[in-house]
Amino acid sequence: MWMMEGQIEEQKEELQRLHEIGEINDQQFQKAIEGLNKAQKIRDAMHTRRSNVITARLSDEVVKYLDDLVSANIAQSRSEAASILIIEGIKGKSALFNEIRQHAEEIDDIRKKMQLSIEESGLGKFDLSLYNDNDTED
Prior knowledge:
Blueprint lengths: L4 H16 L5 H21 L13 H12 L6 H15 L1 H28 L17
Keywords: Coiled coil
């Protein structure tokens, strides 16, 4: 099972104690602390609220990566593993995704302006009853 916040802190304290008594050297201590810090970041990312459900088709190779995260106890499920990979991918390409978001907002603004222009012209106001298929004139 994945470590909770208190368990990570306990592990850091234990590492500090082992380092102080000479059971582990400086390099081992630093690597272990770095690993726990990474684990903490992943744990924090996993525990952000995930309330949206999506359906996706994935290749066998991608599913193997998800399963690797589950078998390493980094994630409790494929869903959680996919969430981690998506979050990390967005973080890794944050400049690109920020640019994409900016362009999407610009497109949305243009779309709203077009809709407003159509509405103001009167073109957007159709009497749909004229096109009703339920008219029966026999």
